[in-house]
Predict the structure.
Amino acid sequence: MPSPEQLPAMARSPEALLEVVRRRARRLRRRRRLVAMVPLVAILAAGGVALASITTEKRPIVVATAGKTTSTTRLSGTSSSSNVATSRPGFPPTTKPPTTLETCRVAHVQVVFAIGQASAGRGYGQFTVRNISAMPCTVAGYPTVVLLGDKGQPLPTTLAHGDPMFAGVTNQTVTLVPGALADFDVTWIEYRGLGTCATPPTAASLRITLPGASHSMAISARSTNGMVIQACGGNLSVSFLYPHS
């Protein structure tokens, strides 16, 4: 039996015509749904590929700790670690400063006969030690002082260790940052030409050696205020180094 759609239009009953319209409407709706689903299927397919690449890609997770960097790879369950210097990215590894400072050497300092004076038959001189280097260094103990002649030759000199002229100063290690000062004192029995002591040597300069130093330096035997050391018998008393005040 032919379907309502196969019958001529004039031979169809109203019910048959209505059935034809309904069938055509259903086919049209199915076609529209299929057309609308094509872009959605394409999007889902592309998203699935991207999701698969994201979930399967192995990216390292870097965890920074003090002195160590740990690298963990996702999805693999493996990790590796290596010791590295502690530093910020793009900066060189930090270097810890030395725990002890170097003893001041001749090249580090400048020594000056700063002040000289005489009172009650005794001479007194204050010497300053200045750090002229770019790094801190330390001084401690008793310097060595030798009288020198006009040609740089050593003159008879006898040294004794004494205390600074200022009370309350203790023997200690003095740290000299760049530009800082330390002091030491030299005292002697002053020669006045009255026959109270042997004729003192005439010193043109002084040879100074700091404690612990392997080299010495020569400085003027005249203080910045014009005092000249004239020590009976070349006997000198030298104090330990102390902080400049």
